[in-house]
Amino acid sequence: MTAMNRRSKGRRTAAVHTRKYATALLITSSLVAMAGCSSGDSDTSSNPSSSPSAASPSATSTAGSEDAAVLAAYTSSWHAQTEAYSKASSAGTDLKKNTTLRALFDIEHDLEVMRKDGQVTTGKPVISPKVLKVTAAKIPTATVTDCIDTTHWILTDKVTKKPVPLPTTRLIKYVSTASLEKWGKTWMVTKLTAQEQAC
Question: In the chain, what percentage of residues exceed pLDDT 70?
């Protein structure tokens, strides 16, 4: 489920949720701040997992640079998503730069619903992504966890410019995870999953 799909759970007219990618995303998914859901548009810094004491400096450096590359891709995906939701269209955005077609499917569905309902988003989500792990393989993979703060990311009626009423029980700040794969030299967001958990 996508970022905006999460927000309108239970409302057909507001069938756009707040990231169940992300978000996202890549959100982020980005969109970004590190530990405290603080406001910020981007943050490619990482919190590398601790390395074994026997690891060489070069190995640690490589791990840190991969974490940074993963976060940069996740953040880029979230920025593009935020732009797409702000106009209910992915046209002219960089969504395909760091987001696979599989992850884009739900986002495009959200955007279609938004266009039909005459809705866009205003403001921006705040993200706080951290790399949980990076796995070396023929196709390297990574997992990112995030706290998506949608306090100032508002679903709005395009004509009246007024916020669309949403369920008061929805999570405003929630945990989201993202899966990424490294295609060549580029990290791509392949899946965004919102958790039923506040952060």
Answer: 68
